Amino acid sequence: MQSNVDRTGDLVERVRAAFSAGESVRLEGAGTKSFLGRDTRGLGHPTLDVSGHVGILSYQPEELVITARCGTTLEAMDAVLADHGQQLSFEPPRFGPGATIGGAVACGLSGPARPYAGSARDLVLGARVLSGRGEVLRFGGEVMKNVAGYDCSRLMTGALGTLGVLLDLSLKVMPVPAMTLTRTQACDQAEAIARMTRWAGRPLPVTATFWDGEQLWVRLSGAEQGVRAAASFIGGDAVDEVQAERLWREKVREQGHGFFAGDQPLWRLCVPPATPPLTLPGGRQVVEWGGGQRWLNGDMDAQLIRDAAARVGGHATLFRGGDRAGEVFHPLPAPLMALHRNLKSAFDPKGILNPGRLYPGL
Questions:
Q1: Out of 90, 238, 271, 336, which could bridge 275 as a Cys pair, Cβ 3.0 to 4.6 Å?
Q2: What is d(CA 111, CA 116) in angstroms, rounded to the nearest whole number?
Q3: 361 DSSP assignment
C-alpha cells in the first residue's frame, strides 16, 4: 500500500511564490509521459514535483467511486480496486514505472477500451485543483451528475497541467468483466476497418480492437453467455488468455509492439472510425479503437499528415519524436485558440504553469 502524504500546503506555497515573482514552473510527477507535448525543458523553468502528494482518500466500491491524491500510482490504485473486482475501465497507459493517476488524467490518455468504456475525461467526477494564483479550487464531486454549468474538473483532463496543478481526483470505476476472449483474423487494413464498422452496428461486447498490419485482434468482454455468442458470431482464431492479456497490456496499451519501436516520429491520427485507409507515403500504420485511432510511424511531412486527417474530419498529433519545439498538436482555428487563451488567463493569469507545453505562447 502506498503511503498517505498531503503536500497541499507545500505546493500552494511554491505556486504562490512563483506567481508573486512571475516565474514559470514545469510540473512533473513520475516523468513517465514527459515526452508528450512540446519540449519546454530547455527554457530553464524550475520543476514543481507533485509525485509526493499521495494517498487514496476514499473508496466506495458499492458506489463505483474512488478518490485519490494525484501522486498516487496507478499500480497502487489497481491493487486496491482489484481486491473488490473493479478497475479503471479507460485503461490508462503507464509508459514507465511509478506512473500516477494525476499524470494519466493531465495527459488525457486512454487505452484500448476507450471507445467502448469511455475516455479518461468521461470518468472524472471531480477534482481539487491548484490554480496559477495559488488558490485551491474544487470542482464536481463523487457522482456523475453533480454540477450545474461548466464541468471544470473534466476541463483539466488533457490540459497537460497548463490550467492548474491537479491535487485530488474522484473517478468512476467499473467491475472487471466476468469473461474476456480474444480472436484474430488475417486481413488488410481496408477489410479490418470494414469489419470493425459492421461490428459497431451490432450489440456485440467488443472492448478493444487492433490491426497490426497483418491481423485484426478483437477483444470481447462481459457475461460469459454473451461473450461466447459474440466470439462464435465474429469468428476467427482463438488466442491463449495469457498471450491475449500480454498483447492488450504490453503491446498495445504500453506500445511495446514492434511497430512502436525505434526513433522514427510517431503520429497519432484521430478520425471518424469508418474512414477508409489513408494513403500516406513513406510510413507504416496500425489501427485501434474500431478504426478511430490510426498510428503512423515514419519520417513524413507534417503538413501532409495534418491535411490528410483534416480532409476526413480528424486531427493529427506528433505523439513522440520529431520536432518537439514546433507544432506538436493539430493547429487550432483562431476562435478555438482564443477560447484556450481565455481559459488559460482565467486559471493561470500570469501563464506560469507549463507555459508552451500545448501550444507556443499558451
A1: 271
A2: 11
A3: T
C-alpha cell at 159: 490540459
Short-list 100, 99, 151, CA closest to 121? 151
Under the phi-then-psi rule, with left for phi > 0, alpha for psi from -120 to 50, and beta for the rest, what region is 98?
Answer: left
CB atoms within 10 A of CB 267: 25
Strands of the sheet with 215-222, listed across from one edge: 237-238, 179-186, 215-222, 206-211, 284-288, 293-297, 266-270, 315-320
Quickly state the pLDDT bin for 43 (edges 50, 70, 90).
Answer: low
User: In whole angstroms, what separates CA 15 from the centre of its chain?
Assistant: 26
Buried b (16+ CB within 10 A) or exposed e, 144-168: eeeeeeebbbbbbbbbbbbbbbbbb
SS3 content of the chain, % helix, strand, coil (to 5): 30, 25, 45
- How many CA atoms does the CB half-sphere of 230 hold within 13 Å? 23
Distance, CA of 265 to CA of 186 (rounded, Å): 27
pLDDT at residue 149 in the model: 46
Sign of the alpha-carbon dihedral angle for 294, 295, 298, 304: positive
Half-sphere exposure for 234 (CA within 13 Å, toward CB): 34
- How many C-beta atoms lie closer than 10 Å to residue 11's C-beta? 21
Confidence band for 150, pLDDT divided at 50, 70 and 90 = low
Under a CB-based contact definition with an 8 Å cutoff, are residues 176 and 85 in contact?
yes
Residue reference for cell 524550475: 46
Q: Which residue type sits at 266?
A: L
**Residues whose CB is less than 8 angstroms from the CB of residue 165 and which lie 6 or more positions away in sequence, other chains included:** 11, 15, 27, 48, 50, 129, 130, 353
Helix runs in 240-352, H state only: 241-246, 302-311, 334-347
Beta-strand (E) ranges in the chain?
26-28, 47-49, 56-60, 65-69, 86-87, 124-130, 136-140, 165-172, 174-175, 179-186, 206-211, 215-222, 237-238, 266-270, 284-288, 293-297, 315-320
What's the whole-number mean pLDDT along residues 133-158? Answer: 76
